[in-house]
């Protein structure tokens, strides 16, 4: 049986995994972007505007941005594998 060769890891992807400050800046920026989008949607609701599907989509997008930022910060890929 032949095994498929592993995909080569790009230099930028490898650098992001090894560089803690790069991950903090990227992940923190994504979390802050999510907070900004959420606050913009919340501001419309606070001013008495109607809650529309657009507002719900904005809040969902803000949550996904923040979650993506947390994933970049924590870098969970390969953490569950035991190295022998």
Number of helical elements? 3
Strand portion: under 5%
Overall number of strands: 0
Instruction: Tell me, briefly, the overall form.
Output: elongated
Mean pLDDT: 82
User: What separation lies between the terminal Cα atoms?
Assistant: 24 Å
Structural class: mainly alpha
Residues in helix, %? 55-70%
Rounded Rg: 19 Å
- The protein's oligomeric status is single chain
Task: Write a concise keyword list for the protein shown above.
mainly alpha; 3 helices; single chain; elongated
Describe this structure in words.
The chain has 84 residues and is an all-alpha fold. The protein has a domain at 24-73. The protein has 3 helices and no strands. Helix 2 (20-46) packs antiparallel against helix 3.
Chain-wise SSE layout:
Layout: H1 11-18, H2 20-46, H3 53-74
Describe the structure concisely for a colleague.
This protein is mostly helical and 84 residues long. It contains three helices and no strands.
